[in-house]
Write a structure and sequence with these properties.
elongated, mainly alpha, single chain, 224 residues
Length: 224
Amino acid sequence: MKQVLHHHGLSLFFALIFLLSLIGQALTGVALYNEEQVSEGFSEVSLLHYVTSSYFMVDVAENWQSEYLQFILFIAATIWFVQIGSPESSEPGTQGPESDKEQGVGAFAAPDSPAWARVRGFRLAVYSNSLLIVMTLIFFLSWTAQSAAGVVQYNEQQIGNLQDPVSWGEYIVSPDFWNRTLQNWQSEFLAVGSMVVLSIFLRQRGSHESKPVGAAHAETGTSG
């Protein structure tokens, strides 16, 4: 058990704080929702009712899709774009998908390379882009869940205001949907951009998201 915790500490740490924050969001969310219910003369709902409602689902999904969009763009952008001094960037002149030899695939694969890295054709093409493919799939699933839950929530408000409900197609081009979406996107873009620029000049000893403390500001593509 100690070895498992030691070898997988990073993923287990984030899994734990994810679950704790999700539970915290559910508990505070149902408390806030019930306050609004009581103030409007309605009865309170259970935690189970709340976490299966469109109100909870839309809040969770809109955060998930913005996070995965952030990583999609960051993964794709770092293939082609360079930022001198950033540990997240390739050295100028080395950007791009690199050669098979540099990537260690096909004829250049090692005996312990993943099976799909040792072959040619479709499987190698898929595996070479599998991280971006899966991140993109999760983004679209989250975006779909957000829009589906969002239209339900929006229509509940419409009916409560004695207005006509809208279709899913009408909702995803509405100001309500894009206001909720863009307020998350802009914060993610700001955070990633800040990380890229600040890591040129600032350091965090021992972190792979930072250059070594003694590295020159212009040193690019190194971490320590």
